Amino acid sequence: MRDVRRTFPGGVVAVDGVDLTVAAGELVAILGPSGCGKSTLLRLVAGLDAAQGGEVLVRGGTPGRARVAYVFQDAHLLPWRSVQRNVELPLELAGVRRRTRAEAASRQLAQVGLAEAVDRFPAQLSGGMRMRASLARALVTDPELLLLDEPFAAVDEITRQRLDEQLHALWAGRRVTVLFVTHSISEAAFLAQRIVVLSPRPARVVAEVAGLDGGERTALLRTEPAFNDLVRRLHAALALEGGRR
After folding, report:
1. How many CB atoms are located within 10 Å of the residue 29 CB?
2. How far apart are CA 171 and CA 169, in angstroms?
3. N or C: which terminal CB in the chain sees fewer CB atoms within 10 Å?
4. CATH number of the domain where residue 45 is located
5. Could you tell me if residue 222 is inside a domain?
């Protein structure tokens, strides 16, 4: 993203002069207060919205050229389809043969811990299970870039922490490029190799903070001095910018 700007009708500036480079295989968290423009940035990267200034390049081209998967805040599962058939849907729409797409969906559901839930319907799932199904549906396309827009914000804290652990393990195994939007400081500190801190609206990059060194992410990490020091630094970056408004 180079000097990206997005203004909505009525003159509301959502994004103003954002520069951001993400390397292949990176897991980057975009951290900022609610309503600051984080989701708008993600939509610009996905090609779901267009910048009015600057440029957005994905692998040196325009958005939409790379294989991009998007996980929204709501799971958006089709209620009349089973979990298995929800995960198969992107491949079905792409014309993939039934057996091939069924095998691919089964593999992804096993990876996210839903192998026993393939025949259930969304209404029979907990909130955390629905988000895992949504994640499996995104991964079944073997994306080069995975965009996640506060996907675990609506679940309870314990479930959210477990989902963060599973997501990091999936990323470590696949090394897909991930942009993860959140307003949770602890979630950003737990997940990301690098955290990009945004200002209140309009979104500007006010800090980029290196994440923790590589390694397994478990619940114990949240008790480590290095984790708590990172949380404090991120909190200070957000508080400092908020105090300038």
Report:
1. 27
2. 5
3. C
4. 3.40.50.300
5. yes
115/33 same-domain check: no
Residue type, 69: A
- Asked if residue 121 and residue 36 are part of one domain, the reply reads no
Q: Is residue 137 part of a domain?
A: yes
Residues written for the chain: 245
Separation of alpha carbons 212 and 220, rounded Å = 14
| Residue span of the structural domain in which 135 resides | 78-142
**Rounded Cα–Cα distance for residues 91 and 203 (Å):** 35
Q: pLDDT tens digit string along 171-217?
A: 988 889 999 999 899 999 999 999 999 988 888 999 999 999 877 88
**Cis omega (within 30 of 0) for bond into 202:** yes
Q: What angle do CA 6, 188, 190 make, to 5 degrees?
A: 160
Q: How many Cβ atoms sit within 10 Å of the Cβ of residue 35? A: 12
156: three-class secondary structure by DSSP: coil
The pTM for the full model equals 0.89
Q: What order of strands is seen across the sheet that includes strand 53-55?
A: 12-18, 2-8, 53-55
pLDDT digits (tens, 9 = 90+) for 135-144: 999 999 888 8
Is 73 part of a structural domain of the chain? no
